[in-house]
Structure formats: C-alpha cells, structure tokens
Amino acid sequence: MTNPRKQHWEGLDTRRGADGISPGGHVIIATVAPGGPTQCSGLDVVQYDADSLQRELGPRFVLDAAAEAVHRAPAAKAQVFHHLRLHRV
C-alpha cells in the first residue's frame, strides 16, 4: 500500500475487495515490515506487521500464518518484509 488514505494496493481494496474473496478463501499478502524501506521506486510505502494488517483488513479475515523475510537490496541494505496468509470468515 502506498497511500493509507486510498486504502488500496495490488488490486485488493481493503474496503470492498473482501467481497471478491469467498468465505473460506485465502489471500497471501507480502508487506513492507516496520523498520523496512520507507519508499519503493520513489513512492512512499506504508509499513505493516501482522497485527496492523489484521486491523486494516478487519474482522472478515483471520491470520493463519506469518513469516518475516530479510531481502538484501543492491545497495546491501537489509529490507524487512512480512508474508501473511489469511482466510476469510
């Protein structure tokens, strides 16, 4: 997500997109983690951990699994990302 006011990223609109996921369906989301980069390709990004993304998506999604990954950028800076699997209730 690049703009928290738009509530939109990669085709999943957090206010309306849940309707496109059937109950019992899963979604996998990779996010920039707190402490990760603040920009990507010149765009400001919003950082999420599992709890903050769960709050963003609301009660229709339940977290099933979360993993943290550290990516080494070309400038050798470590960038932290979270990978989350959630299901719709």
| Percent of residues in helices | under 10%
Task: Give me the secondary-structure category.
Answer: mainly beta
The spatial strand order of the largest sheet comes to: 3-7-6
Low-confidence stretches: none
Q: Count the helices. How many?
A: 1
Inertia-based shape: elongated
Overall pLDDT score:
81
Biggest β-sheet, characterized?
A: 3 strands, antiparallel
Order of helices and strands: EEEEEHEE
Describe this structure in words.
The chain is mainly beta and 89 residues long. It has one domain. Helix content is 9%, strand content 43%. It is built from one helix and seven strands, in the order βββββαββ. The strands form three sheets. It has a three-stranded antiparallel β-sheet. The model has no long low-confidence stretch (mean pLDDT 81).
Task: Report a brief summary of the structure.
With 89 residues, the chain is mainly beta. The chain has one helix at 50-57, and strands at 8-9, 12-13, 26-32, 39-40, 43-44, 61-72, 78-88.
Write the layout of secondary structure elements.
Elements: E1 8-9, E2 12-13, E3 26-32, E4 39-40, E5 43-44, H1 50-57, E6 61-72, E7 78-88
Offer a few descriptive terms:
89 residues; mainly beta; 3-stranded antiparallel beta sheet; two-stranded antiparallel ribbon; 1 helix; 7 strands; 9% helix; elongated
